[in-house]
Every structure is written in C-alpha cells, then in structure tokens.
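pls ignore typos typing on phone
thymidine-5'-triphosphate + seq
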Amino acid sequence: MLSSSPFRNRHGDSSPARSPGRRKRSQFTYRHFHQMASYNTSCPLRVVAHLDLDCFYAQVEMVRLGIPEDKPLAVQQWQGLIAVNYPARSFNIGRHCTVTEAKRLCPGLISQHVATWREGDDKWAYRDDAAEHIATDKVSLDPYRLESRRIMNIIKEHLPGGDLQKVEKASIDEVFLDLSAHVHAVMAERFEELRGLEPYGDANEEMLMPGVKALDWKADALVDLGEGEGEFDDPDWDDVALLVASEIVRNLRGVIREKSGYTCSAGVSRNKLLSKLGSAYKKPNQQTVIRNRAVRHFLSGFKFTKIKNLGGKLGEQVAEAFNTEAVSDLLEVPMEQLKMKLGNENGVWIYETLRGVDTSEVNSGTQIKSMLSAKSFRPDITTVEQATKWLRIFAADIFARLVEEGVLEHKRRPKTINLHHRHGNQTRSRSGPIPARLLNEESLFELAKNLLYQITLEGNIWPCSNLSLSVAGFEEGVQGNMGIDAFLVKGDEARALKSSESARTSSKEAVDTSIRQQPAAKRRRIDGGGGGGIQRFLTKRGSAPEDDLVRKNSGETTLGTSKTYVASGAGWPEELSSKEAQADPRRSPMMAHACSRCNANLGSPEELQSHLDWHFAKDLQEEERVSQAFANQQASAAANNPRVGSQKGAAAPPASAAASGPKKSTGRPKKKPERGQSKLNFG
Ligand code: TTP
Ligand code: CA
Ligand code: CA
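k done
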C-alpha cells in the first residue's frame, strides 16, 4: 500500500540506517511505541486524522448531475444557499448570499435546489419548483446521508479491519480516524528495530532515534514551526508516525476520490482537537500535517475563542480575566495563575488545551440518540387533515433514517415516540412507547396520528405554527426470531398502539417536567424571565446571557422548532441533557455539544442552546423572505406573527462554531465556516 519510501537516510537511500551505535536517543520509549497498538489516548506517538469533504452537498449534486468540476454551483434551500462549491466561492459567493445575490455575482452559477418531501407525497424528490413551495415542501437530506454512508463504507473497507481500525463518524461529512494501531503495525514492518521486545527488557528505556535524516512529506501542507523550534532537528519517531499516517490518509483520500468522485481535506496530528483545525486549514483537496514540534506555533496564531469549548462562557471568562483573546498571550500565563482566576479544573484544562493537549477518544461507537422531523408553518395550518399529511411525511422521513440505522436488521430501535405541537406560544407534547415488534412507516404514522388525536382533545389548538415528531430511547435490538409474533400485537403493546399512553402533559406541565430535568444552569435560564422576542436572536453576537434564551410566556423551552433536523439528539431538552450527560465536554471537546442541524461544535450546553435559537431565528427569517414573494401569504403571516416582522440580515450565531486557521494561504475568499450555519442539519 505504501509504495515508494518517504524515508531518506544519510546516504540518500531509503533503507533505514543500521548503525545504531552512533545514533542519538529518541525522546520516546518502547512503552510509548507499544501504547500505539492499544489506542492509548495519552500516548505521545498517537496519530489521529480528521477528514472533511469539500463543499459536501455541492459535490454530491455535481457528481449526481455530472457537472464539470470547474463550473460554479451552489446548493439552494428555498431562497438561501447551504453549500457553495469552490469555483463559485471565487466569485465571493457564500452561504450568506441569497440566490438572487449569488446570481448577480456570477450569472453562470448553477443553483440546484435540495430534494424535498411534498405534502401528500410519500417520497422525496428533486423538484424544479421546490423553491416556491416552502409552505408545502420539507427538505430531505437523504441524498447526502446516502452518500455520506457510502463514503463511510469506502473508508471502512479500505482501512485494515479489526483492531487496526477506529473510525468515528463526526458529522454528515466528517470522520475522525485514530490511526495509531495501524501506523504502529506499519512502523513495525518498516523498521526492524521496532519489532519484537525492547533490547534490554526495559520498556521505559528511550529508543534510538530513527535512522532517517529527512522525511518526504509529498504534497502535504506542513504547518510551519516557530522561530528556533527545531526545524533542523532530526526527525524523531513522532514525525515518522505522522508521516506514515499522512501516507495512509493520502491513499485513503485517493480511494475516496476514485470510488465516489469526491474530494476531501484532512488534518493529521496527534489528537482530534488539532486534526480538526488542520483539515480546515487548507482546502479544498489538501491535507495538513501538524507535527508535534509545530503545535505551539500552529495554535498561537488562533484566537482562543475559536478553539472548541472556549467559544462560550468559559472563553469570555478567560478573555475578561486576562484581557486578551490571543492564544499567544495566554501561553505566557503560568498554570498557577490560570487556576487562581478560573478555578483548578478549568485552569488546568485551559493550560493544556492551549498547548494542544487533547486526550478525547476517537469513538467508533457514537450512535444517535434520537431523530426528529419537523416543520414550521407559514402560514399556520388550521386543520387535522393538514397536520395529518405532515405526520405522514415525518413518519416516512424518520423511518427512512431508522432503516439507515439498521432498524430492519433489528440492530437498534427507538422505544418512544413524541409529538410536539405549537399553537401561538403554547407547545403541547405527547409521547408514548413504540411497540417492540411494530416498527414500520405505517405504524409510526398511526402512533403519530394517535398522539395528535390526544392533543386535539385539549381543544383550541388551531392554528398551529409548528409540528414535530421525534423518536428516542434507542436501544440495541433483539436479534433473531421474528416469526409469527412479529405480526401479533398483545397486551401493553396493543394498548400502547391504541392509546399511545400519552404523557398527559399540558404545556405548563411539560415545561415543569423538563425544567426538573435540566441541569442547574439551564434551569436558571428557563426560569429567568426576560424578553424573548425573536429579534434578540437575530441581532445578537457573542454568547447570549442566560436570560436571552428564554421565550417568555412560552410553553416551549426547547428549540425543536424548525423545518428539518436530524438525529444525534439535539432536538429537545431531555435529549440534549441525556447527550450532555454522556460526556464531560472538556474531556471530549470535539463532539460534546454538536449542533445536530449544522455540525457546529459548541462549547457548552448554553452555547449550543443559544446557537439553536439562532437557527430558529434564521429559519423564521428565511421563511419570511420567501413569504414576502407571495403577497397574500405575507399579509396574513405578518398579521398572525408580528415576531417574524421584517428583519434583515440575521447576525452570526451566538457562538462561534469552528476555528478558522490563523492564516490561509490558499487565497480563496475568506471562508466564514460554520458561522452562517443555517437551515439544514444532519446526522
Ligand atoms: P461544512 O463541512 O461546514 O461545509 P462544506 O462541506 O459545504 O464546505 P467546506 O469545503 O468548507 O467543508 O458542511 C457540510 C455540509 O453541511 C454542507 O455542504 C452543507 C451542510 N450545511 C448546512 O446545510 N448549513 C450550514 O450552515 C453548514 C455549515 C453546513
Ligand atoms: Ca465539509
Ligand atoms: Ca464539515
């Protein structure tokens, strides 16, 4: 797999030098090398890669439609853009543009609308008239999910299997790979001295330096070192490990390109934090290696508020305490002082993060916790019939995703189904169990109708501005016998199907229940009063203070309010908190508070929530923009919904979502990466 050797010894040939007597000692011990095989996350020779597809949805459309690579193309949702390919970016077109603005900047732009479900239809499709059907269509991300899955399979098939593979799907277009064991195997094969046991039986003894003088990094972007930071020092084993990893990644990217047609960019370093920053450093179709000796210089170019988990409150606190946002300034601050001002735990964590320390695991078992399908209505809907048509779409949408999750093979199944209904500023919710043997599109639809029926019993529920259906409580399925039992519904299950055992919560009770389940910080936010007009979300920058997150007098404490979102558990507060409970964000910074709609990684539950609020506001604004094109609808929408008035230009989401590199040398238009995260979400 690894063809011409990238290692050069003193004499310019590529076999490892064999004169150990003259060699210096490495900084690394045999124990360190052995630790690679077991994915020890503190191993100093650890190698982790992050792959991110270039302008993903745009590439999917280009490949699907056979559009040449140099043609500018953007993916459209209603009147906005959600993905822009690189040729189009050279016209300064970005996610912030409307279709009209983009076409003005580049009249030749191909703008492809995403596929949609249509009220009354049972299958999503690409439709020429989708943009005008915001009222009756709902975006489908299935084409991108399917391609995402395909790419994932290519990756898994290409890499060696078993213990040598650790792949985490981090979002619809990203994966992390812990390549430590794989690289360990390759190194042992290539370097005789690494095979077998340590020479004197002492694993803590430093190894000899590798017998190579120079490494050939091919076309990789190497992050520069700071002044006097050892560019001329001989390569040590960590450089060798990263070089082997970068070869593996280059090969893998080639295979992905060949088999699927897609290009991606990658970061290769010793952990997730750095590799994620690395994959965004140079795009498209490039890979960036952050050698251990370059980490300090690499990070010192960033504002620390761009680093995961430092974008929010904690970051603000740090900025205030030290009167700076620059990593380079904070690197001067001794740990003791950080601890004094920020508390012991935070102090230590920040000290380490600024130095690129991240021991979070690449987690191949990451599984979604819930799925949600929703639609905000403009104008509101007013009848059970209308709502029922949407329930059918939601059921089909969710079921399609369940199939993708392996529900047909009985791998994992959700236990509960929930329906949320918004009328004015009241949200009503009902939930019930999903009978074990009765999981198909039709049964989800039946259960959903039943929940709706329960809600209608409360009377006075129309007009309705938002409906959302979700399934949650995933558990491992039971394998095997699905005989006649599969078709019989008995006892509790039958009752469940009949009545949906609804949690009889009025909107007030629903709030109370979810408040009880919130962590303290969130509780304050919900209790805390304060005006919550949509305007505030649209004009805010920076982290919202807690009371900004309140929707006053609203039965709704959650953000599951917009057209489409998917999977991974960020829909409703119970799910949020269960997901949050899983991981100490500071221990696994990369995915601890990921927005399920746009993949932004937020620093804290608060930031995530406020970011979701921003999505909500943006959705309203988006819909408003469209509705203005339809004079009649506009009139009624404005009358019913003063809050969607006529805001122009939503601000950036309250929390920054992704770090951008300290300097971009590609000369492409300045990317505003995860900032304008709008509209779509993914799983
Ligand atoms: P990104 O990886 O953030 O962006 P990208 O792949 O389009 O571009 P890049 O080359 O800079 O990586 O998001 C992946 C896909 O997720 C993107 O193609 C469309 C979707 N998405 C949205 O729908 N809305 C958003 O706001 C963002 C950020 C992404
Ligand atoms: Ca991408
Ligand atoms: Ca991405």
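Residues 370-476 form a domain with the Dna Ligase; domain 1 fold (CATH 3.30.1490.100). The radius of gyration is 26 Å. more later
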